[in-house]
Amino acid sequence: MSFFRTVIYLLIWSEFNLYIAYREMAEREKNTELKTVADLLDEIEYETLYRALLTADRRTLQIILLKIQGYSTKEIAPLVGLQQELSMQG
Asked: Residue 14, CB half-sphere, CA atoms under 13 Å: how many?
């Protein structure tokens, strides 16, 4: 096999492996629906972030979860017992 063919082969193989890894990650995320704060914490793989989130208060974790679920700030505020700031409305 020529050098050029080897390089092309390696590039294609590398792209294929990235594609497979991306599909597996996307499938896992699609199948993982975060419904509770416990679900959120269970999905954290980065230990430093996990430890930081463990020290956060429950309301903060609920806000993070609701934001991940696609709620807007305006929708989240009453759900967690907060009034929306006037400065955020403008």
From this structure: 6
pLDDT in tens, 42-55: 888 888 888 888 88
* pLDDT (mean) for 18-28: 74
Q: Residues 84, 74: contact at Cβ < 8 Å?
A: yes
Residues 6+ apart with CB under 8 A from 59: 80, 81, 82
Q: Residue 62 in contact with residue 78, Cβ under 8 Å?
A: no
Contact (Cβ atoms closer than 8 angstroms) between residue 83 and residue 77: yes
How much is the pTM? 0.54
**Dihedral sign computed on CA atoms, order 27, 30, 35, 40:** positive
Neighbouring residues of 24: CB distance < 8 A, sequence distance ≥ 6: none
